Amino acid sequence: MTEATQRTDGTATTGADGGAPVVLRLDNIRKSFGATHVLNGISFDVRQHEVVALLGPSGSGKSTLMKCVNLLERVDDGQIWLGGTDITDPRADQDRIRARIGVVFQQFNLFPHMSVIRNVTLAARKVHHWPKDRAEARALELLDRIGMRAKAGAYPDQLSGGQQQRVAIARALMTNPELLLLDEITSALDPMLVGEVLDMVAELKDQGTTILMATHEMGFAHDAADRVVLLRRGVIAENGTPREVMDESQDPETKEFFSHFR
Ligand code: ADP
Ligand code: MG
């Protein structure tokens, strides 16, 4: 595979392999908390329409990496490019960058005292200053797409955990982001509810959404991800197709890691 060439502004041109443009580029990211070196030089790309699964044991830095991309944590060193924008540049406009990235966490995504429609429209209205009509129209369109329009007036505790996560994904898509970050979005769910959320992620993939997802759902990563990136001790242990990494890697630690999920 030919690597994409990179212009000095960080945007990648399509490579000689005709590969899709690079949406997210992590370039030698380092992040420590005190003496704990969590990310020790992480570099990889996510290309347009790709689903990349970020794997690794608990504490390997998946959430930290996601938070750096979403500007909830600042990197100590290295650069993160979203399209042609160096989002680690301190002068970058954080709200504008966040509007270009959708994020869903493991839990506590929805405000319990607000209806579904208010939850979905909140950031678009308050942070991105959309008028109410525009935000509600977009929210209803998204809720319709996931079969949840009838629940627009419901409160989160009237929904199942799976429905709540699907609403959270809909909210993350409000501003039509270039990149969707999903951080273990099924880990807190009753096993019976995991499937409906993963089905929604698979649908988004089919629609061409670019997704970076931290997950322990190895079956899903294997079947749905275009690429898997395995973190270990602050560095990338593996980066390849699910088959290359999950089935064919000869690295003993990699094999040991995946053996826990069989
Ligand atoms: P993962 O998501 O892969 O489970 P995390 O990114 O949550 O891993 O955590 C990686 C490491 O960083 C852990 O050792 C964790 O304790 C530490 N860590 C994460 N956030 C903080 C923080 N705000 N302050 C101190 N240590 C942190
Ligand atoms: Mg995590």
Automatic annotation (TrEMBL):
Lineage start: Bacteria, Bacillati, Actinomycetota, Actinomycetes, Bifidobacteriales
Protein name from the UniProt record: Amino acid ABC transporter ATP-binding protein
Similarity comment: Belongs to the ABC transporter superfamily.
Membrane topology note: Peripheral membrane protein
Pfam name, any one: ABC_tran
Membrane-crossing segments per the record: none
Compartments reported by the entry: Cell membrane
UniProtKB keywords: Amino-acid transport, ATP-binding, Cell membrane, Membrane, Nucleotide-binding, Transport
Positions of the ABC transporter domain: 24-258
Organism of provenance: Bifidobacterium phasiani
